[in-house]
Amino acid sequence: PKEEYSDEFLNHVNKHHSWLLKKGNKGVVFSKIIGNQARTQKDVYYLKTQDYFKDIVGETSNQEALLILEELTEVINKNEKFSKILYTWREIDYELRLIRQNPNLPKPNYIILTEEYLKNPKNRNKTHRILQIAQNLKIKTKIVNEESEAGISVKNFGGLVCYFK
């Protein structure tokens, strides 16, 4: 059994969410996990089921998504020659197929969608295909809760948005 879950989690954050560890004016920062509540897998499971833990994870995820959407807002407000915003699965799927065929084409900065868009039976298979292709191409994706501040913004695009900066 694992003994140092906090170190393992911190390594995960450092690898996949490094912006959380950077100091600066972007708001969300933590550098250490303190406490001894989760020393076993059972303890970790219990911790994950607690409302306060879910609230912290939800708020952190929302703040991360807001930073991504801040970048999207910059793309919207700048009239750059190569900036592009896509918000239908057809457009995104087409673009990803082109990138797969020609790896020299620019990749999107992010694909963001709401949990509700992903759960919708009408979109599910197409959306999972897009997410799989994005993963294969190492394109960042973010799934947000529709009720969150970030989710409300993504919902304004129909629940799915992809942008190139």
Automatic annotation (TrEMBL):
InterPro entries associated with the record: Ribosomal_eL30-like_sf
Name of the protein in question: eRF1 domain-containing protein
